[in-house]
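Assemble and predict.
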Amino acid sequence: MRQCGSQQLQSGMVLARPIYDQHYRKLLAEGTTLNSMSIKRVQDMGFKYVYIQEDGTENIHVEELIGVQCRREASEALERLATVDKQRNKGTSNPFQVRQKEKAFGTEQQALVQRAINSMMRDLMYARQPVYFPGVYLAKDQLINHSTDVAILTMLIGLGFGFTNKDLAILGKAALFHDVGKIRLDEELTYLHPMDMEEEQEDLYRMHPQMGAVLLEQDITNDIHVTMAVLQHHERQDGTGFPEGLKGSGEPPTSKVRERGTIHRFAEIISVANYFDNLVSGRVEREPLNPMDAVQHILNHTPDWFNPHVTQMALSVINVFPEGCNVEIRESRHYSLVGFRGVVSKINIENLSRPTITLLYNARHQRLEKPLIVDFRDDSRIKLDYLTDL
Ligand SMILES: [Fe+2]
């Protein structure tokens, strides 16, 4: 299988993986032959790319880090909270006001949240390759997919730092609910690009960390680390973030001793994961960036925005060239392969930017008679370009 940008899909292509809607119900099954109607549906629903079958790539399998069931649980936990909160606050215009004093989120829903976090931890701990790449999920339901993806990357960074299970669970919970304050904003505002916001809208948007902290304390947890991480996920190391303009301590997140008034170590991790996901989803640069360019943006803002220890760990767990992605060889020690195109068929866990590639086209874009499989792990000159299609 290989990726294909949804704008590049053509009738007759066959899906190699199912496509799910925002509730993780199967929309199109694996093996479906696409026609103009199904292609339009995929495009209208906001999928950036899908996986298709392609001769020569039969041996390429892409494993998601966490299963669909796990995503479903996370989405259910967030949706339930949003529904409960909307009902009880009907008619209030003050986003910080909570009408009913009692907790509306009962033990059953609490258990749902816990289950979602536990499933995520389990899937990540047992992942064959604990490296992150953006999933192929619906762009439309931004809050839920964004929250889940941020939670996955955040927990992988936490795993990289060797956090205890207890810390991982706290970190995961904070990451999954980091933007929960947005459910108190008008839906229209949550879809607006920050550059398109009026001043008043931006002021309101900038309150979402506090709203989130209020909501979490009321409904989900009284764990101070969770609320602090949510409250501070938009703070920056140099003090230019919001809501409080706190500064970073420069300490690695493994060190629990922090100077008073500096950013919480969990918030520093969520901050990097959140920014990365926003870049690859097009919420910062409008056009989605590929993982390699997104990583470069993170580096450009380290250490002014991001804690260098976190950035370094993030780079070691973000899979810039995931299996199934289409690439062209821009530079290589093997001069004769420059310009060749193919599909990443195996990652090299020691060096994620030097994968094994199944080459299918030569530099003149002619199909090779037989796929050529090349392992680039020892090629120090290898430079790859992303392609949405071959
Ligand atoms: Fe946020």
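Residues 68-88 form the longest helix (21 residues).
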